[in-house]
Amino acid sequence: MSSREHDADPVVLRDAMFRYRSAELPALQHIDLVIPWGQLTAILGPTNAGKTTLCLMLAGLVPHQLPGEFSGSVVVAGEDSAELGQEKIAQLTRHVGSVFQNPESQLFGLTVEEDVAFGQENLMVAAAQIRSTTAEVLAVVGLGGFEKRSPYRLSGGQKQRVAIAAALALHPQVLALDEPISELDPIGKAEVLEVVRALKDEGSATIVVADHDAEWVLEIADRVVILAAGSIVASGTPAEVFADPDAILAHGLHLPDALALTHYLTRAGALPAASTTEASATHALQSALRDGRLVAGSPPAARAARATHSGAPAIEVRGLSFGYPGSAQVLHELDLVIPANDYIALVGHNGSGKTTLAKHFNGILAPSSGTVLLNGALLKGTAAGVGLSAAARTVGYVYQNPDHQIFARTVFDEVAFGPRNLGVSGDELSRVVTDALEFVGLAGDEKKEPFFLGLGQRQRLAVASVLAMQPAVLVVDEPDTGQDAAGAAEMMHLVDRLHDAGRTIVMITHSMELVARHAHRVVAMADGRIVADSPTREFFASAETLAGLSLRAPQVTRICAALGSASPILTVEEAIDWLIPGRQGT
Amino acid sequence: MPLIATFYLDRRSPVHRAHPRIKLVASLVAFVAIICFNDPRYQLAIFVAILLLGALARLTPFELLGRVRPVLVIAVIIAAAWALFGPAGTPVWQFWIFHVTGTSILYGIAAGIRVVSLALTFFFVLETTEQADVLYGLVSLGMPYPFAFIIASIFRFAPTISGEGETIREAQRARGMDFSSGSIFTRIQKSMSFVIPLLVRVLKTTVDLSLAIASKAYGAYPKRTSFRQRAMTSGERMLMVLLPAIAAACILARVLGYGALVPGTL
User: Fold this and answer.
1) Per the structure, how many domains does chain B have?
2) What is the model's pTM?
């Protein structure tokens, strides 16, 4: 990061407003914001609050790079970006280093060093200086020696660290990170967090982090700005802003477990104040337990055991091995039985083989050796698609990104696509489409164009388009990716209802919070092998298994473990029941 | 698995170490020589020279010819076509519209070798030069940076887009779509369920990419520097003079009638 060049704050926004061309409402309005030197400012808000637009505005990319209407002023490094020409704006971008959400589309070099050198070359830095700066910033992000690697070959976390290095190479006054970990697996998240922490701990860095997940941001933020519907609704220190958690919830944000738990206990009179970080919450709760304000009750395992399933198998995998043509084997002799109406979480870091395994359930992939049985019948699915329609009737697969499947002109046609492929027509087709749309809450939207729906609605449309084929098993791939707390909760409510209606659920996820709240059983994979298969609470009881998989239990589980809970506590509700025994069963 | 858009084979050889500009100019000279002569003996000599350069680059004939396998089929078809319909002369075999002469057979052989040599030269450069160095070489030879950047982006994002395409295809197959059956019109109709989401994804990637580029001071100055500063050795500088001379010599030789099986025809 560059040293402080002048006394003025690096970025100052005054009454800034921006409305995208073709949008009815402004993405941002009445924005008065000062990014002060040497602090980490967190910009929190739900989806569509305007976080990304604000990050682009800080860098001077809005209004110049995106068409729309702008008013107010954005002063970057002492210059009002709104009044500058294109060339000057390009020069101004060096003052705010931008790192975007998607690690894939911000690295465009053929090698890592090219990506890090790109901005420096644009700023006419001499070759020798570029080489030394590149080596220096790659070392800062822990990627020394990666210069010649192809970005395509890197993991998500490594890509994001290269993006940070490329931003740092310009010696920016501010580093702006827009949801830098939301698309990463747990290992990638940990890698990026370590880098951000290290930069903050240096003391001189001015960092802006935009996210909808308050948990990790509150652990490191000096200041918090809450955005809602394009306006700043709160700003200050984390303690000031989160002093009224109910107001935070009203703005569509999810409270971190530490805050939700201590907020409840504060209102119950057991704690003097709510805590925003894990460490402070743990400390406050330990004090309360010591002086008797809280009394831990019986462990939750006995009263909160989730249903285990031992019925007829919906899916049976026997000795399954798989390798892509010309590549090494990625799945190794797997055996797995999934009983009907089970609710399984398939976990493991990227490349562990969980998605590859799930693609065998509906015949998208065919085993190199071994078999897959659906309801006791051998699945004859092959990569060429033989028997695929039969499998599609039994196992529905909801992909992570709804945009990977949406193509039809209307919502009705999108949902009807699957059943039509299976030969359904006439009144029967209308009935299955209507039922599916009603189930996901999109009844009445049949004639709308799918591309104009919001992300949450598109996600539900993707579910409906699979449900219309009436599968007994549903594979849901990363149901919360890219969604804020409300969107993820809505999606998971839908999945829970499908399970309650008798369907078997296989959820592929990196989110331990989703696993803890919803799954009945966890199947963990590493290097193409199943390394753990147990009921959810048992899974979180094994610290060794979690560490081996580089996974972290949910925050509330970690806090309660530090307080001495005998068995894992999986949700804030369970923690409250445990700490206020009299509340049990109420 | 998505394809990886690189042909580079990492070896320690003088060809790999050579300045990319030399390799690009040398390949242009090779193209000139291949186009100049239509005598199969000359074409064979050029073909052998490329294989020898391959050996110098520690590439086996299999590695070189393996890349151009599809071209070998085309070369045989071209050779046969020229043999059947080629330049006039005394027929050695005649049937219906086919008119095979000794000259047409030799011309066909030359044409077949020519096609293979052109492909070999192209892949030889890509197999001995990293993509980034190829682009550096092109820019150092005067190609405007934006063009080089577009080429680099195509190389970089080809595997990404290919991966997106594979995911989309899988997502539609999971909804019972069978892309492999039906008439040509049915298949075109079916392909919309693949093409539309792919276009949307490409568009989104392009927008993201443009913001990422803009955030890195692109266009801040009329010119830009390059961290790849590779000075040419004195031997390479001599080659830079010699290579155009070889090209000129080839053209002159052809004008004087050397290497021309059929004069007046390329």
Assistant:
1) 2
2) 0.82
